[in-house]
Amino acid sequence: MIHPTSHPETSHPTPRPAGRSSRTPVAELPEHIGETVTVAGFVHTLRLQSTMQFVLVRDRSGTVQVTHRRGEDELTALLDGLSTESAVRITGTVVANPVVKLGGLELLPTAVEVLNKAAAPLPIDEHSGPEPRLDWRFLDIRRRPAAQLLFAVQTTLEAGMREYAYAAGCTEMHTPKLMGTASESGAEVFELGYFGGQAYLAQSPQFYKQMAIASGIDGVFEVGPVFRAEPSYTSRHATEFTGVDVELAWTADAEEVQRFEEGMIAHALGLVAERHGAAIREQFGVEVTVPSTPFPRVTMAEAQRILRSELGWDPEGAKADLDPEGERALSEYFRERTGHEFLFVTHYPSSVRPFYHARPADRPDLTLSFDLLWKGLEVTTGAQREHRYEVLVEQAAEKGMRTEPLSDYLNCFRYGCPPHGGFGMGLGRMLMVLLGLGSLREAVFLFRGPNRLTP
What we know:
Layout: E1 36-48, E2 52-59, E3 62-69, H1 74-80, E4 87-96, E5 105-116, H2 130-135, H3 137-143, H4 145-167, E6 171-172, E7 178-179, E8 191-194, E9 197-201, H5 206-214, E10 219-227, E11 240-249, H6 254-284, E12 297-299, H7 300-310, H8 324-338, E13 342-346, E14 369-374, E15 377-384, H9 389-398, H10 407-411, E16 420-426, H11 427-434
Parallel strand pairs: 3-5, 6-10, 12-13
Antiparallel strand pairs: 1-2, 1-4, 2-3, 4-5, 7-9, 8-9, 10-11, 11-16, 13-14, 14-15, 15-16
Helix pairs in contact: 3-4, 4-6
């Protein structure tokens, strides 16, 4: 098992982007009072009065008021011709004015350049519903600070997870998304034509990251697209999403994998809290809680007992797995008793787990697997893998799977593959819970579902 270690100090300076224009971010204008600067951004609102023209210009860092007294000049005509969301570049003097609510300063323009005038009226506004906002997603993101913040948080969350994995000695991989045979069970895959033949979009990088372990790489991780031809219309499903996958060599059991994951999540959330905690509180009304480790654990058998005997969970039919209602109820039960928002549910029945999950020697009806719930939502699935060729063949046959299409995968285990385990995480689901969003659609750039392939 690998454990995170700190990187040695280096003398490499932080690179600065080259080739950028000399525009000043709005957030830095208080440092330039009395100076002439150039800002570039989008027209947020216009108040074109009889004697004064007020234009709010927004860039990624904030919004500034541009103030101009009407006259018989070119600036007056240019400002009169603006429309909301037009892209502009404005040069002017930064002046302190305590009357101005936006930062107590304003920009008195000396030059206005209309880079791209926006058509009017805009196709969406603050009252638009979710579907129109998805249709015009670029405008929706541009006009809402919370949506802009989402992607800054996503960047930091990914950076934190990568940082932890790098420190643990993991190697970042980029596995194929085109497969000659359907991955995993073969269900819920997208088929496509491939030079007169047939190919499939990968349901996960599972087989390939195990192949990397068989290649002698001790730990691997990947952040990449995952495709599921699943006709689900819930708030937490998508047909394409970003997965965070980790596989670790020489693990003795699933517990080692769980320790790695909880450490990685705690580290990444700590980074998010440090960089964006105040902004998340302001924009989403959510407090970022950095979890302590270890997270609570409960076996599936005990989870079912608690749900049925203490919480009245009674789904139709005999359930070997948990439904969303059961996940929420179980998470709340443990949150009240432990204070934890995270919960590992372990030892799922082999009937509901893939053939490559390892099983206890004395309980072949169970798997050395787990799901991680965060505030009642499943965000990851993981397990100790079965690394013995003969056992894998036997377990695949037990699931009614033909081994011929799996030959490339199974060959990885014929020549000394070490014990290993790993997990797959849904990045969008993590963001959804982190920011308190109502749907996965709000947690991704461009959502893909059974009824949406555009824009």
